[in-house]
């Protein structure tokens, strides 16, 4: 399977996530189901799918898949879950100091931080043209999210508290580091991807379960224990939200194993733009000049990063000097 096909599919699924989530709301624009259970059910879904494909690989593969079962290696898969746990908590803290729109724009820093950590920890060298493309991608996504002020006052991006901006930068680095570390884990040996996924998602199940328990304590068990309401209010659309989230996660792990984090960043960034375009038709949202400019900039970035240099620049032909035969 080619990586660009998986990246395109990830773009479609990621863009569908926000739309499906919006469609799963009731008439009051709230949710009949507990949204905190969605990541937990998504991890269960990914774990079951990975178990099935590992069993299938064992049954059909002429050679048995490699499965490293040493605790020293397996415990490393706890790290991404711990990082995401800190990242989620910092996200809530950041939103106390910044408006959601400002936080969304600051979130584009993870594009830059992914490139930086990609170079430092994985020692993958990027050309100057690729660095320029990554910077353009961050500029393009940010441009598409900026709303026009018109005749009304608009909130300045620099009106938030300095603590919020510091937390947003930390959040961007944590998000990027989690992705980079996961790529390192998946590529450090030749273990079956499905076996590696089982280790990742098992950790994810337990950490998400812990998050649900913490939520119960914070609410004073007002709605009872989390397992008593886990399936309450779930409609077909809500289950599609879970399935879509889980499928996106499985595709991300494939890209981490066989492509890299930069491909994932491009896929998710393009998904954000695709969501904005589809929202024009599904939710009667008016397109802005900022969105159009953002899409153009991101397309240029995509072309610069993935197109070979010899196809971008017309290099002058080098004439081979004709060697003259010497007279005898």
TrEMBL record:
The keyword Oxidoreductase does not apply. Residues 1-18 form the signal peptide. The keyword Signal applies. Pfam families: Nuc_sug_transp. GO terms for cellular component: Golgi membrane. Keywords: Membrane, Signal, Transmembrane, Transmembrane helix. InterPro entries: EmrE-like (IPR037185), Nuc_sug_transpt (IPR007271). GO terms for molecular function: pyrimidine nucleotide-sugar transmembrane transporter activity. The chain crosses the membrane at residues 37-55, 76-95, 101-122, 129-146, 166-186, 198-214, 234-256, 263-283, 289-306. It is found in: Membrane. It comes from the Eukaryota. It is a multi-pass membrane protein. PANTHER family: NUCLEOTIDE-SUGAR TRANSMEMBRANE TRANSPORTER. Belongs to the nucleotide-sugar transporter family. CMP-Sialate:CMP antiporter (TC 2.A.7.12) subfamily. Sugar transporter involved in the transport of CMP-sialic acid from the cytoplasm into the Golgi. May transport important nucleotide sugars such as CMP-Kdo (2-keto-3-deoxy-D-manno-octulosonic acid) in physiological conditions. This is CMP-sialic acid transporter 1.
């Amino acid at each position: 399977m080619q990586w660009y096909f998986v990246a395109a599919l990830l773009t479609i699924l990621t863009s569908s996530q926000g739309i499906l989530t919006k469609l799963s709301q009731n008439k009051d624009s709230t949710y009949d189901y507990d949204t905190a259970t969605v990541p937990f059910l998504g991890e269960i879904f990914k774990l079951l799918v990975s178990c099935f494909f590992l069993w299938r690989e064992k049954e059909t593969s002429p050679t048995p898949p490699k499965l490293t079962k040493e605790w020293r290696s397996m415990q490393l898969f706890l790290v991404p879950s711990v990082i995401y746990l800190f990242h989620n908590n910092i996200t809530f803290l950041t939103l106390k100091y910044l408006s959601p729109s400002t936080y969304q724009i600051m979130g584009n820093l993870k594009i830059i931080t992914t490139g930086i950590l990609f170079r430092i920890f994985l020692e993958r060298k990027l050309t100057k043209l690729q660095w320029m493309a990554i910077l353009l991608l961050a500029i393009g996504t940010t441009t598409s999210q900026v709303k026009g002020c018109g005749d009304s006052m608009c909130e300045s991006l620099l009106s938030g508290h300095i603590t919020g901006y510091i937390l947003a930068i930390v959040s961007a680095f944590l998000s990027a580091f989690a992705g980079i570390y996961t790529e390192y884990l998946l590529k450090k040996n030749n273990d079956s991807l499905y076996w590696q996924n089982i280790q990742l998602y098992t950790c994810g199940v337990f950490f998400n379960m812990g998050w649900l328990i913490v939520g119960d304590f914070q609410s004073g068990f007002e709605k009872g224990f989390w397992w008593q309401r886990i399936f309450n209010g779930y409609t077909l659309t809500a289950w599609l939200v879970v399935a879509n989230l889980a499928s996106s996660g499985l595709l991300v792990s494939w890209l981490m194993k066989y492509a890299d984090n930069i491909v994932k960043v491009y896929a998710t960034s393009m998904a954000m733009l695709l969501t904005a375009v589809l929202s024009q038709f599904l939710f009667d949202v008016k397109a802005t000049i900022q969105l159009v400019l953002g899409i153009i900039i991101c397309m240029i970035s995509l072309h610069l990063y993935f197109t070979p240099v010899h196809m971008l620049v017309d290099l002058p032909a080098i004439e081979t000097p004709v060697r003259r035969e010497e007279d005898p």
